[in-house]
Write a sequence for this structure.
């Protein structure tokens, strides 16, 4: 679907995806439907500057590829992984704007807390000029405290019950030996199992590359 001016509508799904789960997938599909997006590009964060001990980017990239492969409207970008250095959304959006030019309207989708963090970090005008933002929350979330209304119609909120699932909970479950079946796609569960991700104490196997992937995707370069 195109917007009023005939441009393609491109959803950019930003996240650390450590790991990606069904809540993310439901949110992306709901955003696609509600906003008439032609495509949703998942962009796993290369090195989230505000976080320590994140699973190596190549693992998170492959998990995202596996999770999205069956939806023809979903794709995955290595943009932030290959860029290296700390990940800033404004840089990503500018790169996508340069690439797509005026032919595409960009809508950045992520969690509501992260939207607020992005827009209060620096240069909100530049961010809001470059893209619209879709803040995904779970229904009982207190939106009042975010005060997203001040950004006008450039920021929209979508409520996604499936976001009761969280990456933090998935990691904890794996560590405790509890099931993650039905919370993540089967391919994601299989990869986590095969690579023995999230088995050690929270924080083990972080960005120092101590848990590097041994398989596909490595040759494409590792931004960590
Ligand atoms: P986070 O702070 O770890 O997540 C905040 C909340 O949002 C969590 O509940 C998280 O759940 C949820 N969430 C994260 N991504 C989501 C998505 N795509 N859809 C729905 N819910 C989502 O957020 P993060 O993953 O580090 O960052 C999210 C995005 O914002 C990334 O693209 C990141 O690069 C960007 N970001 C940019 C800046 C900046 O440029 N200054 C600052 C902060 C974040 P889960 O843990 O279950 O995902």
């Amino acid at each position: 679907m195109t917007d009023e001016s005939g441009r393609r509508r491109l959803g950019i799904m930003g996240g650390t995806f450590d790991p990606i789960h069904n809540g993310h997938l439901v949110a992306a599909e709901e955003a696609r439907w509600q906003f008439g997006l032609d495509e949703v590009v998942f962009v796993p964060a290369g090195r989230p500057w505000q976080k320590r001990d994140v699973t190596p980017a190549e693992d998170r990239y492959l998990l995202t590829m596996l999770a999205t492969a069956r939806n023809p409207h979903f794709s995955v970008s290595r943009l932030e992984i290959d860029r290296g250095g700390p990940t800033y959304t404004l840089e990503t959006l500018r790169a996508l704007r340069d690439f797509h030019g005026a032919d595409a309207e960009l809508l950045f989708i992520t969690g509501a807390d992260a939207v607020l963090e992005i827009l209060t970090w620096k240069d909100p005008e530049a961010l809001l000029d470059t893209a619209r933002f879709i803040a995904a929350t779970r229904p009982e979330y207190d939106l009042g405290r975010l005060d997203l209304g001040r950004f006008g119609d450039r920021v929209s909120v979508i409520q996604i019950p499936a976001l009761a699932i969280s990456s933090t909970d998935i990691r904890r479950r794996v560590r405790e030996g509890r099931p993650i079946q039905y919370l993540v796609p089967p391919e994601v569960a299989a990869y986590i199992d095969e690579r023995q991700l999230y088995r050690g104490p929270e924080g083990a196997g972080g960005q120092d590359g101590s848990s590097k992937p041994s398989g596909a995707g490595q040759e494409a370069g590792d931004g960590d």
Summary: Residues 13-16, 24, 27, 45, 48, 50, 87-89, 109-111, 113-114, 117-118, 121, 136, 163, 166-168 surround NAP (CB under 6 Å). The chain has eight helices and six strands. The helical segments are 22-34, 57-68, 79-83, 89-100, 112-121, 124-130, 167-176, 186-195.
